[in-house]
Design a protein that fits this description.
431 residues, mainly beta, Jelly Rolls, nine-stranded antiparallel sheet, 30 strands
Length: 431
């Protein structure tokens, strides 16, 4: 999990009209906006399956396929800038001489259509007719199958047309992850940071969520939801050098080396986001329960530093070493302190993720504790133009990060926040 993971930016779509004469330009200025100008075609590969996010196949190449379970629905989410009327259609592919009965729902209004593929058709159109967008903001558009035990068809796109479609925003990219969101903590000038402490409380934590508590220039430390049955505490440190994918390509002098780890902790390699040493403890940490983390730095000489991650075990009521790593070509202290929240699996990027980040402290190389009460907000490229449901704020005296869920709430890149100080330094392991 790279806290600064990048995915490509979506280029803005533009329409270029070639006009034959100046008179035609002038004429168009006085024409009403046509329905074609207010049409949005939303690819099926941007949709989400509910209630089981894996209940049908969603791919960029095929759209929605293998939709045989009528309990599963196909869902798009759009942010509408104005209320008003619209019409809705769905494009799909059916085998010859077959039918599919479908229902579309917007704002609690549902319309049903029976679609039959004719001999000369390649793409069928399910025209659901007129709907109304009741208010500005996010709205779900739900497609249901009324076919019992049979394939509903290969869904290709949703088409929204009309007044309410004007300036409406949908994610049009195949990446369905919620935007990753970050907190950056400024450190007073001239301070060598020997320890960084932070607490995280998960509020909304669907699977494929990683809440990172203590990030620095060489690694990250936090908690992850891998499945409904498995959760992890993760501590990882990057190698030196610039290998981005395969750790086998990293020469020995650039590799971080495991020094020690706690009982039950797995250690190994990681790649594809930079390379390095990975460790994790499988532990079913609880939603709503505060988790405490501290990462320490011990520069041994000018050539390497030992980075260690300690987590406070809620049941044992004591600090537990996750792992310690010797990082070569380092010799320095902790820098670039940050936290983040990441949705690392795209099939459920429609689910809300929210966590509280509080009580941040650093310990200087001279043993002085300093409380960090300021943080600034940032997001990955997905949050720039594809997904706007990402923001931060202050709640209960703590910072929070929220992303996904297609809910209202928006923070500008670089927004700064200040929480109230606690003024009670933590007690951390002295080892």
């Amino acid at each position: 999990m790279n806290p600064i993971r990048r995915n490509g930016l979506l280029s803005s779509q533009k329409r270029h009209w070639r006009l034959g004469t100046v008179f035609l330009v002038l004429g168009m200025l006085f024409q009403p906006i046509t329905s074609e100008a207010n049409e949005i075609r939303v690819p099926a590969f941007t949709a989400y399956i509910s209630p089981d996010s894996e209940g049908a196949s969603v791919t960029e190449q095929q759209g929605v396929t293998q939709w045989t379970d009528a309990k599963q629905s196909v869902n798009w989410y759009g942010k509408f800038e104005k209320a008003g009327a619209c019409s809705a259609k769905v494009e799909l592919v059916l085998p010859k001489d077959t039918t599919s009965k479908l229902r579309l729902t917007i704002n609690n209004r549902s319309q049903e259509v029976l679609v039959k593929r004719m001999e000369d058709q390649e793409v069928c159109v399910a025209d659901f007719g007129a709907f109304s967008i009741a208010s500005k903001g996010y709205h779900r558009i739900q497609l249901e199958s009324l076919n019992k035990g049979t394939d509903a068809g290969n869904v290709k796109a949703l088409v929204i047309e009309g007044e309410a479609a004007m300036d409406a925003h949908f994610n049009l990219k195949e990446r369905r992850n919620a935007a990753s969101v970050h907190l950056a903590y400024p450190v007073p000038t001239g301070i060598d940071v020997a320890a960084f402490y932070s607490e995280v409380t998960a509020i909304e934590d669907p699977t494929t969520t990683f809440y990172m508590a203590c990030g620095w220039h060489r690694g990250y430390f936090g908690m992850q939801v891998n499945s409904t049955e498995e959760r992890r505490i993760i501590f990882s440190v990057w190698d030196s050098g610039d290998e981005a994918v395969e750790r086998k390509n990293v020469v020995d002098e650039n590799r971080v080396k495991l020094i020690s780890k706690g009982n039950g902790v797995y250690s190994g390699d990681f790649g594809n986001e930079g390379t390095g040493g990975h460790s994790h403890l499988k532990y079913l940490w609880k939603t709503g329960e505060k988790q405490r983390f501290v990462v320490t730095a011990e520069p041994k000489d000018k050539t390497f530093t030992v980075f260690s991650g300690f987590w406070f075990h809620p049941e044992q009521k004591d600090w537990m070493l996750i792992s310690s790593w010797k990082a070569p070509k380092e010799g320095g202290w902790l820098k670039g302190l940050h936290g983040f929240s990441e949705n690392f699996g795209g099939s459920n990027g429609d689910r809300l993720r929210k966590a509280l980040y509080g009580n941040q402290w650093i310990k200087s190389s001279k043993g002085k504790w300093i409380e960090l009460t300021q943080a600034s907000f940032s997001h990955d490229p997905t949050g720039q133009s594809d997904r706007f449901d990402r923001y931060m704020g202050i709640e209960g005296g703590q910072f929070f990060l929220s992303h996904g869920g297609f809910v209202d709430g928006f923070s500008k890149f670089g927004d700064e926040f200040t929480r109230e100080p606690i003024r009670n330094p933590p007690s951390i392991p002295n080892r």
